[in-house]
Amino acid sequence: MISGDLLYELPSIVERLDLTQLFQKAQPLEVELGCGDASFIAEYAKQHPEKNFIGVERLLGRIRKLDKKGRRLALANLRGVRIENAYFLEWLLPAHSAGAIHVYFPDPWPKLKHRRHRMINEGFPALAHAALVRGGRVFLRTDHEEYFEQMQTVFAASRQFKPAETPTELAEVLTDFERDFLAEGIQTRRAAYEAV
Ligand SMILES: C[S@@+](CC[C@H](N)C(=O)[O-])C[C@H]1O[C@@H](n2cnc3c(N)ncnc32)[C@H](O)[C@@H]1O
After folding, report:
1. Distance of CA 48 from the midpoint of ligand 1 (Å)
2. Topology of the domain comprising 19-195
3. Hey, which of 56, 107, 176 would you mutate to test ligand 1's pocket, going by the most ligand atoms within 8 Å of its Cβ?
4. How far apart, in Å, are the Cα atoms of 174 and each of 17, 53, 109?
């Protein structure tokens, strides 16, 4: 049981979301997978009242921060869902419903034997494509050079995406982890791909 005005409690984990139950207004949807403390998505939702946003996060303490930040900003266009990212993408998000999927600083699982846990793997582009509207985009950021190469490799291998740019106004909205990396002088990388 989780409580919080902006945290959406799933009525079912075997039926896709009814977006009309989450948002007062039907507007273009964007999703952040692994939103952490919601630094990015709360700020970006504030800047874009003409869109709806869902932050997905598995840790209760972090998704509660989405609720807190979103309520402080009185956001009617932000909701949080506490669940596992890949499950949300594959089984809960309605088909072709999102204009953008943001994945920022996903856990890099640096040990070779743990790499199978990485979210951006060979199967990710197909799942993302099924969730995106035509022309929808995936935005990626990471500090991990080798994971960045994996991200580029899996999208290069997909015929469902072409490379795209990250708009400056989007790149300027930093995540919590990104702020820390930048403060420590750690280089970060970003990429974007558009569904064709
Ligand atoms: C390294 S943090 C980055 C958080 C945020 N995106 C940022 O840049 O500040 C990764 C986040 O993804 C969440 N996470 C990792 N694996 C997940 C999964 N399989 N499903 C949902 N959330 C996940 C973690 O709990 C954590 O909050």
Report:
1. 23
2. Rossmann fold (3.40.50)
3. 107
4. 28, 16, 22
